[in-house]
Amino acid sequence: MTDNRSLISRFPHLKEDFAASLVVFLVALPLCVGVAVASGVPAELGLVTGIVGGIVTGLMRGSSLQVSGPAAGMTVLVFEAVKEFGLPVLGVIVLVAGILQVAMGLLRLGRYFRAISVSVVEGMLAGIGLVIIAGQLYPALAAKAPDSGLDKIFQLPGAFLDAFGDTGALASLAVAAGTVAVLLLWKLTPAKVRAVPGPLAAVGLATLAAFALDLPVATVEVRGLLGSVQPPPLSAFGELAGLGLLGTVVAFTLIASAESLFSAAAVDRLHSGPRTQYNRELVAQGTGNMVCGVLGALPMTAVIVRSAANVQAGARTKASRVLHGVWLLLFAALLPDVLAYIPLPALAGILIHAGAKLVPVRSLAVLWREHRGEALVLAVTAVSIVAVSMFEGVLIGLALAVVKTAWEASHVKLEVVDKGAGPVEAHLSGNATFLRLPKILESLEALPQDRPVRLDLSGLHHLDHACRTALENWAARHSAVGTEPVRLVTAA
């Protein structure tokens, strides 16, 4: 009795956290496997990342209720990295990315990720979502997906036409479509039924249907946990000398960090408990990725789906996310053969549904009505990721966001007062930058050449070097025609 009271005093929310951990485990299990298969790595490596995210990162300080693991948002980047550099080098990429995350956290750079344009982040997620949907429709059709994002989209009609003459492809498509249908309709079921998470129910029903009907669909290949964990060999670290690999490491670092910290901000809005400490959370994420890298597993980020499930299930402390990692470990150790019964098109359906949720259709419509510049940044970022690649697409989005901000910040107003006698008064106010220079010069050059001009710059908040030089050159040219020199008035 005394021991029970001692346990309750040390862990006053153990009951709530225990129940929440089971819910998160059931949500995480099919997603861990699905993300791994879509990333082109053994299914067990997704479980390894989920275990590390739960136990290692879960024990660290940062965000108390956020849950980490393999994320659909990193699928495209991981697949490209494995295809280009090979599976052994993936561990090196994840390890170095984790080291950089820890360094950024220790240097207190975590808060700067909050300054990234929301439109760029949403555009990044939308682009990832589109590539995931297009890519996963191929395993749903029992077909091999093309390499590039554009080919995945353009070759889809042909893949669907080919499927109609293939019994296996039609069976696979039926399983994927059924999985998506269960996910969409699960929220309409009675509350007692919804106690089982939708992703688990969808995969479970698809597995049962495939087994009972003896459908000719592909299933997950099982290697066993120990057979899948392959620490990167020392020779793989030599790849770090290449610029291509370093660019991939930077992409992993920035995208995983941004996704984790934006997820933290979203999770903080779901509960009234302790707020996220961004720098510590970055250290925790980096530590988890370092462990994943050493084990040769997938990179991890905080995942909003699992985190929201954790909060909604009543979790109160970080014990819930640690316990969910323990349940994943027990499953991977004791029941790995169960994975071999899961149909691949069911996992494709899970990821198609997850990819669709990454595309902010409603947000884009609202942005287009209220902030068209932001909508343009979002759309260009998404299209660039599909057309080019993940890293370049994000860079294009960031560059466009900077240009848009600079353009909007460089508001300048030119007022001309001509009383008919005396000098023409020209007043510039606002922010005069090179972006607005053509407009400024066009207005000044339209002033009468035979009249003295007084150009008042005292209303300017900012005057960059390009504008100052151009205005001085215009003043010299205007004064050269025989009128009084242009008088420039600046702020005291």
TrEMBL record:
GO BP: any one term: transmembrane transport
Cleaved signal peptide residues: none
CC terms in the record's Gene Ontology section: membrane
Residue spans crossing the bilayer: 18-38, 85-107, 119-138, 169-188, 200-220, 240-267, 326-356, 376-403
InterPro entries, A to Z: SLC26A/SulP_dom (IPR011547), SLC26A/SulP_fam (IPR001902)
Keywords: Membrane, Transmembrane, Transmembrane helix
Membrane topology recorded in Swiss-Prot or TrEMBL: Multi-pass membrane protein
Any Pfam family hit: Sulfate_transp
Segments forming domain SLC26A/SulP transporter: 14-381
Cellular compartment(s): Membrane
Designated name of the protein: Sulfate transporter
